[in-house]
Structures are given as C-alpha cells and as structure tokens.
C-alpha cells in the first residue's frame, strides 16, 4: 500500500498544468546535442523555444541552421527539442544528426520537464521571459514562418 501511495505522488509532477503567462519559470538542467551540461539561466534568458515533436523540430532546425550559431545567443534565446519517448533506434540516427547543427539544441529527455511547456500541434512553443517570469507564450510554425517576429 505504501509503495502504491509513493508511486501516485511520483506522478504528480507529470500531471501539473503547463506554464501560463505570469508564472515564474523554474530553472532546469539538461544536456545539449554535444553532451554538454546546460542549466537554464532564468534571469538572463529572454526566450525559450520548445519543439514537441520530430517533424516540427526538423523544420525548426532547418530555419535555425540558416541563421547560424550566433543567432539564438544573440537574442538571449534557448532552443530545446523534446526527445523524451524517442525510441533507442530513433536516437541512434537522430542524435548524431543533431550534432551537425551549428546552433545549440537542449535535449528535453524528461517527461515531467516537457509536460511543463504548453504546446500546439506542429508549432514551436516560444516563451518570452522577463526577470524569470513568463511574459508571453506564442506558437511559431517553422514550416511556414520566420522566427524574427517571435523574438522581439
């Protein structure tokens, strides 16, 4: 019985509502595509972009590649790709490909972390941050739109 109760409490973070405008964003740590450590600087980051699925991530990477390695840091922006749930075979092909991109990709490999970010099908979530709080949430369609308008 105690084990069942513990398991139920362990699921609570996964069931939390996604972030909303006005909320404080929690710092998190993850690895990037080069296996380098990353910790979100909640005060210094202005934008956090999160792709939730592989096709949207591919489209976002295509756009970000054309902008170069210094574009996101110049905008104080961070890009995270959801890789949680990606099967091992998929990782064998996807992760080496991600290493070829010049821009940094933070690997979202934690279900509880990914669940915190709202999503719209086929779009990248763009959270604008100010002083560690979310000032707005927008959704970028990298297949049909440029990113500049979202990072102002």
UniProtKB/TrEMBL annotation:
This is FAD/FMN-containing dehydrogenase. Residues 1-16 form the signal peptide. Keywords: Signal. It comes from Haloferula helveola.
């Amino acid at each position: 019985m105690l084990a069942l109760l513990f398991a139920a409490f362990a699921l609570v973070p996964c069931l939390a509502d996604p972030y909303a405008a006005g909320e404080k964003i929690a710092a998190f740590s993850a690895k990037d595509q080069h296996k380098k450590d990353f910790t979100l600087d909640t005060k210094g980051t202005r934008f956090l972009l999160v792709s939730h699925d592989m096709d949207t991530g591919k489209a976002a990477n295509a756009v970000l590649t054309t902008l170069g390695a210094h574009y996101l840091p110049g905008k104080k922006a961070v890009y995270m790709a959801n890789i949680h749930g990606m099967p091992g075979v998929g990782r064998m092909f996807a992760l080496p490909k991600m290493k070829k991109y010049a821009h940094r990709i933070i690997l979202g490999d934690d279900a509880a972390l990914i669940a915190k970010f709202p999503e719209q099908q086929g779009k990248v979530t763009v959270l604008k941050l100010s002083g560690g709080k979310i000032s707005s949430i927008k959704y970028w369609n990298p297949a049909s739109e440029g990113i500049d308008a979202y990072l102002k």
